[in-house]
Each structure stands twice: as C-alpha cells, then as structure tokens.
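Q: How would the structure tokens look for this protein?
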Amino acid sequence: MLARFAYYCLILPVSYLPLPVMYAFTDIFYILLITLIPYRREVVRNNIKRSFPQLAPSGQRRIERKFYRHLTDLLAEGAKNLTISERELRKRFKVSNPEVMEALFQKNKSVLLVSGHYNNWEWLITGQNLFFSHQAAGIGMPMTSKFWDKKINSHRSRFGMHIINAKNVHDYFSDTTSVPTATLVLADQAPADARKSYWMEFLHQDTPVIFGPELLANKYNQAIVFFHVEKPKRGHYTMLLELITETPHQTKWGEITEAHAQRLEKIIEQTPQFWIWSHKRWKREVPQDLEDLMKDQEAKFNSLFRKK
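A: Here is the predicted structure in token form.
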C-alpha cells in the first residue's frame, strides 16, 4: 500500500516536472545530505579513503561533496526517467561513436556492453534500444518489492529494452539467435560469491569482480564493448564506446575481466565523483586460499573453452 502511494502520489507526479525545477529541489536536498542527513557517510568516506590513500583528508572530502552533489542529480534524473520522452532522451543522452556497434551489427555479432554504475546508467537502460541497431537487453536481479520491480522495469523497457532476470540469462541467449543483441552489464557490484569471482587489484584494494561477462562472451561467442558515460554538463551525458574484443576465444583467462575493470578504474581515478561510492563494494573477504582458488578457476575455464 505504501509503495503504491509513493509511486502514484509522489514520484510519478514529480517525474512530469521539467528537470530544471526538479534540480531546484535536489539542490536543497544536497545541502541536507552533507549536513543533517548523512546518507551512508561512513561507507562513502571509507571507500574513498581506501581508494585514494595518496590524498589528504581535505582532498577526500572534496570527492565526497562532489559525489553527493552528483547523487542528488541522479535522484532527479531517475524520477524523470519514468516519463521522459524519446525526444528529450535523445537530446540529453548521446553516443559519440555509434559506428563501433554498427560495425559489429553488420557482422551479425552480438555484444556485451560492459561498464559500471558511473554517471547516469538509468537513461542508458531506457534509451539503449533507440541508440543501436542491436536488440537491447539488460541483466539484473529482481527487486525485493514485486510492485516496484514491475513498475520500474515497465518504464525501462518502454522503448524496446528486454529486461533479463539474472537467473534466466542462459535461456535468453539460447532463444535469441535471429537478431544480434546488445546486453548491458554493470559489472562493478559486489559479487554474491567471493569464491566464484575474479580477484584483482582495483583502486588499491584486493577486489572480487563479477566474472559473468567473460563467461558469457566465451560461451556464446559475443563481442565485449566497454562504455564510458561522460557528463559534459548538468542533465546531459555522452557515451563513448571501446571494443575490447570480438574474438573472446582468442583471449586468456581473466583477460576480458581485467580489461573492462582496468578501464573503469582509470575513469574513476580521473573523475571519481561520478561513481557510486555509497555501495558496499568491498564487503567480501579475500579467500585464504586465493592462489589455489585462482589456479583452479583457470583450469576449469580452460577445460570448458580452450580445449585443443
């Protein structure tokens, strides 16, 4: 009942407001976040401190304040995403080099679009099917609330995006053989299982990285394209594409995962305020037998995909 009230009486009506008006409200909310409402401040500060140990506390605080400023913009833009028109979406979210994807489409090559929760990913989810010739798909876990899961995904998919339950990915890829797909994967979440993750150094810390994109690329012979979303000005975003590989079977174990994670790391180091620092990204403990674990992972991977 409360979810329905919040959606129909608060969030949906607000989404029809012009963005400049919505930003006026979030400007006030930003002041509250850095003063009276310390939203996950301990998590944010600890993540930034560990990721930028070379910075003085004053430098780390600057990142923190800029992050909260950006976060309030995302709140407005997330609400706007529920009702944003195709015309306005195309105006505010652009792709600088779509020829990277078009070349793969002409080869009938399906793609895994990989990056992280950096800048505005919600507008990309909603608009992806408008930007590329590939059939757009997105992988995600269902929300706890069935009401919100249904409502949010219906808005995300209104321009043609296929929303895939993470548990049904293999069924989806097995069924989509006629039209090349471009599947969006935000691969910077904390993995569910530390022992099934790929461990590497990321932002000066031992970090488990989701291995799914590399596994799917090899199983279904899909290209890997990394994307970077820049924010040239408030309320406007530009997407840049970089082909990592269109021949995953020619890569070594871990090569794809390190490639997209290292690219994301470099972007975060350059402009850190646009990454979501409030996620509990480093909540998994490093396995004590990590060296043996990684050798075992590599052996299993090679037995599946590198048989001679």
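The chain has one domain: 2-279.

The beta strands are 93-95, 111-115, 135-140, 162-165, 181-186, 198-202, 205-209, 223-233, 236-245.

Upvote if useful.
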